[in-house]
Amino acid sequence: MAGIAIKDLSKSFGPRDESFAAVSNLDLDIKDNQFITLLGPSGCGKTTTLRLIAGYIVPDAGTIHVNGRLVSSPGSVVPPDGRGMGMVFQNYAVWPHKTVFENVVFGLKLRKIPAAEARRKVAEALAQVNLTGLEERYPNELSGGQQQRVALARSLVVEPEILLLDEPLSNLDAKLREHMRTELKVLQRRTGITFVYVTHDQAEALALSDHIAVIHGGRLQQYGTPYEVYSKPANRLVADFMGLVNLVSGKVLEVRSGTGKIELGHAITLDVALPTGTSIGDNVEVAIRPENIRLTKPGNGSPPRAKISERTFLGNISEYYATLDSGQTLRVQTHPLQVFAVDEPVAIEIDASHCSVFRGSAAK
Ligand SMILES: Nc1ncnc2c1ncn2[C@@H]1O[C@H](COP(=O)(O)OP(=O)(O)OP(=O)(O)O)[C@@H](O)[C@H]1O
Ligand SMILES: [Mg+2]
After folding, report:
1. Is residue 73 part of a domain?
2. CB 309 within 8 A of CB 323
3. Closest ligand 1 atom, CA of 198?
4. What's the domain range around 220?
5. What residues flank ion ligand 2 with Cβ within 5 A?
6. 222 in Cβ contact with 214 (< 8 Å)
7. Nearest atom, ligand 1, residue 48 CA
8. Which of 183, 188, 239, 297 has CB atoms 3.0–4.6 Å from 287's, for a disulfide?
């Protein structure tokens, strides 16, 4: 199976004097047999990146190598069908007037595979996505999840070494998405195909990926394991995009080697790891996940106080907004059985070891 090396890749659209950079100086090393995800908000350049990898568009700068072979550069692009890749498109359009079999066999016909062999390969691809027996149905006789799997089978049947998937689950309801998520992961493990998966859903990215590339404004912000991007975000954009986070302004009080003390608003201090080059008095921004804040009934000598301003019961957790004396409001998640009332005073403890500190003030 195949790895992909992307080096300094850039692509702009529009006339030269007012062109828009959809992808800027992207470096990405995708090892073979990996499930990697391109994650970012709408318009950040995910589809453009995937289309560059697939060979549908020519880069303005940079290169793409697949297993050491140069497949894209500004001067030459190996066409999509010469790359050993399959692609499931964002609007996964299966052909409505073709049966499941006809949809899936299409790519093999293009490649002039003899009929008997093509039938065998289609049967194999359908078995891989659990659609055996539905060959003669038309898409309007299938559920959304089944149609999605037809689109998958259609790209699997040509035995790609790399499968590019552009938000393939976005049209499904929540339960089916979760089910298909598991199926995709199992499929990737079983086939060993390198999956490059695009989503704007951070929960999906965390659940599926060996590595996540977080993209914002056409630029790579961080490339790491799900654990790394969630718990050690490289910057505030990543922290903000990967799940819920409180971004709080603070000031540096003390600096030791790599660590230090910061003050958040009134009288809350945290001993944290600091970015290199931080000095005493610097303004910083602290990212605190709601699950890393503890609320307790205030007692004698307890840590600083806040007041509950809002609470929401969410089944497996309870969520609170706790307003500090400084006026700053923190979002907090607790066990559902830990109950505080609105307006109740509480003590706040923050697990500083799980906070990330970034330079500069919080952008409002
Ligand atoms: N062919 C094109 N011509 C002009 N601009 C384009 C073209 N394709 C994409 N863009 C622009 O490039 C930017 C990135 O688009 P892209 O489709 O890669 O985003 P995306 O991350 O896939 O977004 P989404 O999550 O909404 O699918 C957008 O601002 C888009 O409008
Ligand atoms: Mg897209």
Report:
1. yes
2. yes
3. 22
4. 4-240
5. 47
6. yes
7. 18
8. 239
